């Protein structure tokens, strides 16, 4: 089995991993930048790319050390080259090119979202296709049908915010902390999810599309009351600091309930309209325990194999990049040194 070094730098995680073949993880090192972005309550692209430039070589060295390997043992270099923040992607892509050229071994560009959907197979079995696959992360929320790991057919996606972004904004609104997903989940633990009725928007044209902007506004009004005036002129009757801790927890629990219900509703429609064997998921929001529980219930009801990664492979990591790259290498899909860092690029649909 080829030994592949994977590099991930698409957003605010600098990561490197060594994976043997598609699924045997020898090491997976992740340097998060949460501390650098917390005071801005969101990822600042320029800060992110500078931090990647400082961290990329140390995380690669650490990944080699943990696996007990040297650069000379590598068979290929893989990098997440799309989608993501351009400055951040460039750090990973340039490093991968330099290593591939210097070592004289293949370079393999990997689609970050397809890599998230490969994550359930790390340290585990391959997926039984066909599958309905959910991506729920900070930048993306979409449903796909997959018949193989290197392509996916888009069934629906968010028409506004990504669900992770909605969690992050909800956490800012409730002054819950950063990053928002885990902060809301923790705050929700002591809250009553029935306390506030925060509506799940109806999908208009495509029943498999998602929308989270309305939920965010509903949370804002529930927390701070209806504003007088609009836009920057808006004046709210209350501040978040006027709310008791238990009301903030109730708001977090109610928000989480609706956000999870919106995702599960989309997944239910998808699995009911397609004949599939597996239900897969990937992306940071799949770390959410209530979402994991509800997907497990749905898979059980519909007799589907549930494939969602363990927590460590839900959030951005490089093992998923290296693992998927092994399948590209096997299929002869390697890249030249003109591989581009590309901020936006859809997952390729199946050929033919
Ligand atoms: O996949 P990821 O690490 O990065 C992107 O590719 O975007 O996902 C990060 C997102 C963030 O929005 C974060 O708040 C969310 O995943 N997230 C969660 C949880 N853990 C991370 N959302 C809900 N509940 C969680 N436990
Ligand atoms: Zn991601």
Oligomer: single chain
CATH top level assignment of the largest domain: Alpha Beta
Number of helices: 11
Query: Would you tell me which CATH topology of the largest domain applies?
Result: Nucleotidyltransferase, domain 5
What is the CA-atom radius of gyration, in angstroms?
21 Å
The description of the largest β-sheet is: 5 strands, mixed
pLDDT under 50 segments (min length 5)? none
- How many strand units? 10
Portion of residues within helices: 40-55%
Order of helices and strands: EEEHHEHEHEEEHHHHEHEHH
C-alpha end-to-end distance: 29 Å
What amount of the residues lies in strands?
Answer: 15-25%
Task: Please provide a brief summary of the model.
This protein has 352 residues and is of the alpha/beta class. It has helices at 34-37, 45-67, 86-103, 112-118, 163-173, 180-188, 213-224, 245-273, 289-301, 311-314, 319-330; strands spanning 3-8, 13-20, 24-32, 76-82, 107-111, 131-136, 141-146, 153-157, 278-282, 305-307. The structure holds 5'-O-[(R)-(carboxyoxy)(hydroxy)phosphoryl]adenosine and zinc ion.
Plain-language structure description:
There is one protein chain. With 352 residues, the chain is α/β, with parallel strands linked by helices. Helix content is 40%, strand content 17%. It has 11 helices and 10 strands. It has helices spanning 34-37, 45-67, 86-103, 112-118, 163-173, 180-188, 213-224, 245-273, 289-301, 311-314, 319-330, and strands at residues 3-8, 13-20, 24-32, 76-82, 107-111, 131-136, 141-146, 153-157, 278-282, 305-307. The protein has a 5-stranded mixed beta sheet, with helices on both faces. The protein has a 5-stranded mixed beta sheet with strand order 8-7-6-9-10, sandwiched between helices. A hairpin with a 4-residue loop joins β1 (3-8) and β2 (13-20). α5 packs antiparallel against α8. The model has no long low-confidence stretch (mean pLDDT 95). 5'-O-[(R)-(carboxyoxy)(hydroxy)phosphoryl]adenosine binds next to α5 and α6.
